[in-house]
Amino acid sequence: MSDFDLSKLAQGIETPGYARRNLRPRLLHLGFGAFARAHWMGYHQDLLNKHPELDWGVIVTDLNYNADRFGQLEDNDLYYSVLEYSDTVDHTRVIGSILGTAHPARNGVDGFFAPFLFPDLAVVSLTVTEKGYCLAGGELDMTNADIVHDFADPRAPLSAIGALVEALRRRRDAGLDAFTILSLDNLPANGKTCEKAVMSYARKLDADLAAWIERNVTFPCSMVDRIVPALTDESRALLRERLGFDDPNGIVGEPFRQWVIEDNFVKGRPDWDEVGAQFAADVEPFENMKLRMLNGTHSTMAYLGYLSGYETIAETIADPDFRTLVYDAMTREIAPTVTVDADLMAYRDALIHRYSNGMLKHRTWQIAMDGSQKLPQRLLNTIRDRLEMGEPSIRLCLGVAAWMRYVSGEDENGEEIDVRDPYAERLVFLGKQAKSNPDAMAAAYLGMTEIFGEDLPNNARFRKQVTAHLSHLLSEGAKATVHRVVHNGEALEEE
Ligand code: CS2
Fold first, then answer.
1. Is domain 6-280 annotated with CATH 3.30.70.120?
2. Which of 41, 126, 186, 374 has CA 20 to 30 A from 134's CA?
3. What is the pLDDT of residue 495?
4. Cα(251) to centroid(ligand 1), Å
């Protein structure tokens, strides 16, 4: 029985202002993680609330994750809740636009692909995280285990890339038209990146199909932003207090949200700009701003904060040295590389305010995950631009060194770190082998060209800076190193 009896929910909880029976399956989302549930699904509900006559319903799907989640969602009549939470906002909403779910583990392969064959399906959006695109050095990684599997068994794919191509094949073979593929992941030029991965896979698999996809599918880029940590016992309890029951699909996020989308859809799209999203001809400047300013400092805080014993971002940014580090990194090193029609200093100040949201309990360990997939767009591309400008990147290089210190797998008390990364085993192995020798450790990690490319490891300035930071991190620890950089930053810039 569903826990969601909408007529019995506490006052003040937002319920759908539209009738689900009027919706048709026109949107399909792949990757029903925390972010998607709290971000674009919220915009979409706002739009349906504003225009209850619209018929844009949503199917949610996933490949390797969340099978149980879908059972629970169905038990709850396909409703779930979102709490938008800060010291000034406390708003609970019940999202009601989902029409159905599909998951290979629950529905079988044909069941998974069935909703992709709804004739009216117009947009397939995805949040599959950085590693879900199976890239190495910006190209589809033909040695990736899921991709290798999918080439061998393309009708029952494991990867998102394989699934998109198989879904399009089924549509073409059924005489249906294609759909727009809308990446909502934190990758630079995410639409183009997704297109590149899809097209490399399709071309190798089936040239005719690849040509059909090329003619019929668009891959708009988008910049997405909302901080939505994984649920903790504490945030689950907060939501339970408001709902009166436990929602296994409930999620808690910050009130802030932003969504900039390239207006390039093949079969129409909802007018999400009526509810605060923005359509733009060129999204890359916004993506760069967000990936470099927000995600770049997020990752820097995650590694340094974790090593310093801070459990959350709010705790980390409450340390005045860390706050200064993040402030200076954005002001002196990142902002000068970003050209966008926005006030970057106001953006910086808003970010520091958002990081300080103590209600969110965003764990440094969570953000530290998958660094090998995140570093290039969050820190390394910015460093490349700085090198080209002939300018220093003291603070950004500290972020890179902190990643190395972190993935070496042992914290400052000699305890093991639970490193989560597609390359975790190799990273920890390299760290152990280097035996706390900064030169050996930096050299070992810089040898991973799939992360650092060929250019950065050969750049003496970059190498020297990262190795020097790593040496301090290993000998003095993270807090002391941050203190040094914050207090001697300008002198270090002259070095
Ligand atoms: C975070 C992001 O986990 C991470 O790596 O940096 O999920 C971040 O919270 C979002 O990009 C904010 O929009």
1. no
2. 41
3. 62
4. 15
